[in-house]
Amino acid sequence: MDQTMIVYLIAGLAFVSVVGVGFAFTGGGTTKAQQKRFKQVAVGAGSGGKKNSSVDATLMRRKQMQDSMKTLRERENKRRKDTRGRTIKDKLAQAGWTIEPAMFWVLSAVTGVVVAGITFVLGQTPLIIAGAGFAGALGLPRWVVGMGISARQKKFTQQFSDGIDVIVRGVKSGLPLIECLRIIASESPAPLGTEFKRVIDAIQMGTTVEKSLSNMYNRMPLPEVNFFGIVIGIQQQSGGNLSEALGNLSEVLRSRKMLAEKVKALSSEAKASAMIIGALPIAVMILVYFSSPDYITLLFTHPTGHFMLMVGAGLMGAGIFVMKQMMKLDV
């Protein structure tokens, strides 16, 4: 064999040996270990498996939270279409009155007859008598009920943040949610204590917490109560730190209250101007009556004057309503 061929053969054998040794150290000797590692990654074992399990739990929790929010949105849309809370029975319950709707309608009819009788004694025209009777039977009683609802809701809003703080402190100390609600029902003044007492009574009768809070929202249709029901509903379905969630809600409600007070202070000048503008026609009428009684008495003695007074009162009422709506800001 030629010497050159021998050199080439030795070089080839050396190359094959080097490749074999490299394959043994890099691939062949660790094939089983790599396959084992691949299986561990695939099944989520070891440290990587714990990470994958954590990611899966986070995704599952997020999906559960999204499902809960979707359910609550559907329930809220259904509640907006519901007619509950709009009947006279619900209005009386919102005002905290215990009279029956039939008695309310009887009192409304009596009020209408009394107002119509007063206008008849004053010698007004039949049209004015009918309008006064209609306003006294339907407008005046509903206005009184609306004032009662507004006063009760305002008082409830002032107490509600303190009630949520009671729940937060109770949950942090280890008390269950029902016991915290019972503390509010027994220790808080009306109307907060009254409403939570109804919630506790409904729960003791077998109603769920979520349904009981929904009924409380029908009796007290405030955004604060709606927020509270949503937080409790999410916590009941998906779990989580209830004290932290309610603590954040309490801060939000207090911020809303501070913003409302700030808006009230900033709009006080506009309210004073609206009151002056609204009282100006009446003040001018009184001054004209004392200075020239014969000039303005026609408004009270002539049918055309009665019509002008009705038109003027309607325009004044519309103007005051528009100014009130312009100054109103929902927070």
Model description:
With 331 residues, the chain is an all-alpha fold. The chain has three domains: 65 residues, no CATH class; 99 residues, Receptor-associated Protein, CATH 1.20.81; 69 residues. Helix content is 85%, strand content 0%. The chain contains 15 helices and no strands. Helix 5 packs antiparallel against helix 6. The N and C termini lie far apart (102 Å).
What name does CATH use for the topology of the largest domain?
Answer: Receptor-associated Protein
CATH architecture of the largest domain: Up-down Bundle
Which band does the percent of strand residues land in?
Answer: under 5%
Count of beta strands: 0
Unreliable runs, pLDDT <50, ≥5 residues? none
Number of structural units classed as domains: 3
> What is the structural class?
mainly alpha
Helix content: over 70%
- Rg, nearest Å: 38 Å
**Main pleated sheet:** none
